[in-house]
Specification:
CATH topology: Jelly Rolls
Order of helices and strands: EEEEEEEEEE
Largest sheet: 5 strands, antiparallel
Structural class: mainly beta
Number of strands: 10
Shape: globular
CATH architecture: Sandwich
CATH superfamily: Jelly Rolls
Number of domains: 1
Radius of gyration: 13 Å
Oligomer: single chain
């Protein structure tokens, strides 16, 4: 059993970016906050499936070049090999949960 409190975990960039709540041994998961004008950056995973659950905001979800406007409550599952990005082109923060499985922390391929 593992217990974590979100308040004990830090965002990568102070008050935004990814915040891992659990890492391994089977999956990664956590939160991401994007401020207006920020983006995830186009990338793919060779073996990892990534799921995004949007809590707040309406950014663009881009998968294999297809742009989709997000609404809170949307869930996207991105398969291994699919290039994806999240672009907060709005004037409000975006907040989402991400889940990556299996746990392969070096599986990211930057496509920018």
């Amino acid at each position: 059993m593992q217990r974590v409190n979100e308040a004990d975990c830090a965002f990568r960039h102070g008050d935004h970016g990814p915040k891992y709540l659990m890492r391994g041994p089977h999956l990664d998961w956590g939160l991401i906050v994007f401020r207006p004008g920020q983006e995830l950056g186009p990338h793919l995973h060779e073996q990892v499936e990534e799921t995004f659950y949007f809590l707040a905001g309406s950014p663009l979800m881009v998968v294999e070049g297809e742009e989709m406007r997000v609404t809170p409550g949307d869930v996207f599952r991105v398969e291994p090999g699919e290039c994806h990005d999240i672009v907060n082109d709005t004037n409000a923060d975006t907040r989402l949960i991400f889940i990556k499985t299996p746990f392969l922390p070096d599986d990211k391929v930057d496509m920018s």
